[in-house]
Amino acid sequence: MNDNRPVVAVVGRPNVGKSTIFNKFAGKRISIVEDTPGVTRDRIFAEVEWLNKYFTLIDTGGIEPESEDIILSQMRNQAMLAMDMAHVILFVVDGKAGMTAADKEISQLLRKTKKPVILVVNKIDNQNQYDNIYDFYELGLGTPFAISGANSMGLGDLLDEIVENFPEGLDTEYDEDVIRVAITGKPNAGKSSILNNILGEDRVIVSPIAGTTRDAIDTYLEKNDKKFLLIDTAGLRRKSKIYETVEKYSVIRAMSAVDRADVVLIVIDALEGVTEQDTKVAGIAHDEGKACVFIINKWDLIEKDNKTMGNYTKEIKEKFPFMMYAPILFVSAKTNQRINKILEMVEYVASEHSKRVSTSALNDVIGEAVMLNQPPSDKGKRLKIYYGSQTDIKPPKITLFINDKDLTHFSYQRYIENKIRENFGFEGTSIKFEYREKNRK
């Protein structure tokens, strides 16, 4: 994690409105918000800006101090880890429900951290309910902040107080050079295990229960002077299997993770092979113009001969004909095989994704391609490409100035694209094309 960025953890027992507050601060819906205690199982990260100050906000699963349930106890461990990482802790309590024994126990945990704790009494939706905050003075955490997360009341004052409590010497400026990586795939394909191996610590709950990682979790990592934001996503399930609204949110979250990533890792279970969902995620990533890498996990469980990898590669290419550009890595999270290659590949395809080529070099390649293979014609009229220019990155976009858009053909565009790739690479990223008719007088 970027240790120089202030970290704020939102903690409290289940269903007090932590995720609602988190989403308001983050400015978008990131956490799952649902009236089911324990829905937010893992820590979830977001970048927040207030008065030109940037900090990392962590939402946590609700703390239930005495629970022995496997998931609830892991949620408690995650919350403790978040509190350990945090510079400021927001302790959220429910102003409607009043103070509980669990609130008292959590307040004792928080006092031991010796960190600034801001007591937030949520669900104070109008002035008449303001008296509800006085009971919470008993927790010994100073003056409670009365807010309504749902109605956005009191949030500005709360943000002022948060920023006021940052230790001196921390970097609150936004870091632009972070490579954002979404780790996607079906439940139990091994996404969280891969992330844990990359990080070298249990940052994400790993449990044999399919779908344990319900939401997208952001983890910062600095390695070899490079900064990464690793987004572990809930596994996409088939739509027919989505019975709970929670699962529906998870599908949306996975798509949202792809949307904000630079690089998408499509994790495929080597034993199960390519599924409909893998195709769907890959299609979304391709359409969104993200850099992509296929990660074939559990490779240690496959019986091999000298053709196994070649055959598997061929199958991937056949299943994803629109993504011939995407490299394939065969790994095992269990044995650590090639796990160290993942970030190297991420860094490489991210650089290809943001690569720029000069207009003169590009036109040399286009000119040669046109000489070797004439553009298509229709009713005696032939497509003319006057010149091309790269007009964007992430993904690379090539604008071709031509005589008539009606004469363009996908097969000729693919031919031009192949020639561009032969000369400039662009491995791991799609290339977008735009046509502009050049007005001749």
From TrEMBL:
<feature type="binding site">
    <location>
        <begin position="297"/>
        <end position="300"/>
    </location>
    <ligand>
        <name>GTP 2</name>
    </ligand>
</feature>
<keyword id="KW-0690">Ribosome biogenesis</keyword>
<feature type="domain" description="EngA-type G">
    <location>
        <begin position="6"/>
        <end position="170"/>
    </location>
</feature>
<dbReference type="Pfam" id="PF14714">
    <property type="entry name" value="KH_dom-like"/>
</dbReference>
<dbReference type="InterPro" id="IPR006073">
    <property type="entry name" value="GTP-bd"/>
</dbReference>
<keyword id="KW-0547">Nucleotide-binding</keyword>
<keyword id="KW-0342">GTP-binding</keyword>
<feature type="domain" description="EngA-type G">
    <location>
        <begin position="179"/>
        <end position="354"/>
    </location>
</feature>
<protein>
    <recommendedName>
        <fullName>GTPase Der</fullName>
    </recommendedName>
</protein>
<comment type="similarity">
    <text>Belongs to the TRAFAC class TrmE-Era-EngA-EngB-Septin-like GTPase superfamily. EngA (Der) GTPase family.</text>
</comment>
<dbReference type="GO" id="GO:0043022">
    <property type="term" value="F:ribosome binding"/>
</dbReference>
<feature type="binding site">
    <location>
        <begin position="122"/>
        <end position="125"/>
    </location>
    <ligand>
        <name>GTP 1</name>
    </ligand>
</feature>
<feature type="binding site">
    <location>
        <begin position="232"/>
        <end position="236"/>
    </location>
    <ligand>
        <name>GTP 2</name>
    </ligand>
</feature>
<dbReference type="GO" id="GO:0042254">
    <property type="term" value="P:ribosome biogenesis"/>
</dbReference>
<dbReference type="InterPro" id="IPR031166">
    <property type="entry name" value="G_ENGA"/>
</dbReference>
<feature type="binding site">
    <location>
        <begin position="12"/>
        <end position="19"/>
    </location>
    <ligand>
        <name>GTP 1</name>
    </ligand>
</feature>
<feature type="binding site">
    <location>
        <begin position="185"/>
        <end position="192"/>
    </location>
    <ligand>
        <name>GTP 2</name>
    </ligand>
</feature>
<dbReference type="InterPro" id="IPR005225">
    <property type="entry name" value="Small_GTP-bd"/>
</dbReference>
<feature type="binding site">
    <location>
        <begin position="59"/>
        <end position="63"/>
    </location>
    <ligand>
        <name>GTP 1</name>
    </ligand>
</feature>
<dbReference type="InterPro" id="IPR027417">
    <property type="entry name" value="P-loop_NTPase"/>
</dbReference>
<comment type="subunit">
    <text>Associates with the 50S ribosomal subunit.</text>
</comment>
<keyword id="KW-0677">Repeat</keyword>
<dbReference type="Pfam" id="PF01926">
    <property type="entry name" value="MMR_HSR1"/>
</dbReference>
<dbReference type="InterPro" id="IPR032859">
    <property type="entry name" value="KH_dom-like"/>
</dbReference>
<dbReference type="InterPro" id="IPR016484">
    <property type="entry name" value="GTPase_Der"/>
</dbReference>
<comment type="function">
    <text>GTPase that plays an essential role in the late steps of ribosome biogenesis.</text>
</comment>
<dbReference type="GO" id="GO:0005525">
    <property type="term" value="F:GTP binding"/>
</dbReference>
<dbReference type="InterPro" id="IPR015946">
    <property type="entry name" value="KH_dom-like_a/b"/>
</dbReference>
